[in-house]
Fold these 2 entries.
Entry 1:
Amino acid sequence: MYNKGLIVSGLVIFVLLVTFPIWFNGLDAGPLPKPELPPGGEKECVAPAAEMRDSHMQLLNEWRDDVLRNSDRVTVTVGGKEYQKGLQIACMQCHSNKEKFCDTCHEYAAVSPTCWDCHITPTELAKKEAQ
Ligand code: HEC
Ligand code: HEC
Ligand code: HEC
């Protein structure tokens, strides 16, 4: 038996991927999102920006597998500072405003990663700590 839901979402993802250069360059797609750069003033990402734009999803999957399946918590060094592979403990250390960074693009691209069902955002964390 085929799973129709899976096929349809597979097709949607395929179309999004194939047409990515078109809509990402803003042809007919309305104003481009302007993700806010790290408020802490960091200048570099864990990989060149263009590479991050294209494949941060794969990188996150690789990191998750490294940490959870291979117990590899190796650190990455960016601008002389060490970060452990992770979503909160790396990405969100610099991109501390998920709403103004991750969300601006994702809303534009109509993707809603489910990561935040479990992983806590800096905003949620700050709220908790204030309680
Ligand atoms: C069902 C809950 C759940 C969802 C959904 C989820 N994760 Fe996780 N994730 C976890 C747990 C639990 C850990 C283990 C935390 C630890 O051991 O540090 C983890 C660990 C990770 C790690 C490794 C280290 C760390 O603490 O950050 C990465 C990277 C990661 N997840 C990325 C993602 C991404 C990207 C998504 C969305 C595509 C996602 N996760 C969705 C539960 C979840
Ligand atoms: C050390 C701080 C730091 C860490 C850690 C970090 N980033 Fe970045 N990130 C940056 C900076 C600074 C830029 C802008 C770089 C540039 O423009 O050359 C950036 C750029 C990006 C971009 C491209 C943004 C655009 O405007 O096109 C994406 C996507 C991104 N980061 C995602 C992530 C993800 C996902 C993680 C975790 C796997 C992560 N970053 C970890 C600092 C960081
Ligand atoms: C420069 C725009 C941009 C920024 C900034 C950005 N993303 Fe994305 N992200 C995208 C696009 C576009 C997609 C979907 C396209 C694709 O799958 O190729 C995506 C997809 C994802 C996915 C996979 C979603 C899925 O359902 O499979 C994850 C996980 C993700 N992003 C995490 C993050 C995190 C975490 C941040 C903030 C630290 C972030 N992204 C910032 C553009 C961005």
Note: The pocket of heme C (ligand 2) is lined by residues 35, 37-38, 42-46, 49, 52-53, 56, 59-60, 78-79, 83, 90-91, 93-95 (CB under 6 Å).
Entry 2:
Amino acid sequence: MDQGVSGRMWKKRFFAGAWVAYFCIAVSFLFMTALSLNANEAQEVPEEIVINNEVYKTDRKGSVQFSHSEHVEGYVDACDACHHEYKDGQNVWEEGQPVQKCSACHDPLKRDGNVRKLNIAYHKNCKGCHRELAREGGTEAPYRQCTDCHAKR
Ligand code: HEC
Ligand code: HEC
Ligand code: HEC
Ligand code: HEC
């Protein structure tokens, strides 16, 4: 066998192989970008949420197990009972728009004008609705016992 020829052949094959590899990598990058864009478009609605922000000055209470899907499908009619984005005092958030974490706007350490501290916002939202319902009667939504929401520890 002629060493020179097979050497060149090898080189040719190697470069052809390299191009194929580059091509595959490029395609998979495109694919991944498309996937992540897609994920942004259709944000998954969580079923169960463990609310356990580790951003407070002190973390005095246990985490809160929140049945998002029970609330969404059974207890509460509208997403905007809990999700909002205010413009000129009006909630302009609509179902289908991206949902941000409460902590994106509610600072855990300080109140900012109308925007309450994170734990106060949660208590107003969760306990507020439960208390209202209890007043009307006929529901078991917890608002008095801390451990009805906060895990014991
Ligand atoms: C209806 C549900 C509910 C009830 C009842 C409730 N909480 Fe909370 N609480 C929450 C949620 C949700 C948060 C936000 C937790 C987070 O951000 O990690 C929170 C946060 C807190 C925080 C700040 C986070 C931390 O761990 O330090 C404190 C303190 C707290 N609650 C105290 C209480 C006390 C005291 C009671 C009883 C008097 C109580 N809560 C009752 C839902 C509830
Ligand atoms: C009773 C209150 C409540 C209702 C009603 C509700 N949600 Fe939520 N949702 C929450 C809470 C609390 C979170 C957790 C937020 C956090 O982690 O800061 C959440 C989280 C989410 C998230 C994930 C956000 C993220 O980045 O983690 C999506 C998406 C979402 N909700 C969509 C919906 C949709 C769609 C509806 C109506 C069909 C709805 N929610 C109704 C309270 C509610
Ligand atoms: C995009 C920013 C933003 C996000 C995300 C957000 N909030 Fe708010 N929230 C606000 C602003 C701004 C106000 C004050 C509205 C006003 O009164 O002008 C407010 C007001 C509230 C109030 C009324 C408080 C009162 O004074 O009675 C509650 C309760 C509340 N938010 C709870 C939540 C909860 C729970 C979440 C997460 C599920 C959440 N917020 C997510 C911006 C946000
Ligand atoms: C707009 C009203 C509303 C809001 C806001 C709300 N809830 Fe509820 N919640 C209900 C109703 C209705 C029930 C069912 C009561 C019954 O079983 O009779 C319930 C039940 C519960 C229960 C007991 C049953 C179960 O599914 O676990 C927990 C715990 C609870 N909610 C936690 C929360 C927390 C935490 C938040 C705030 C992040 C919250 N809720 C916000 C209406 C609300």
Note: Residues 36-40 have pLDDT under 50 and may be disordered.
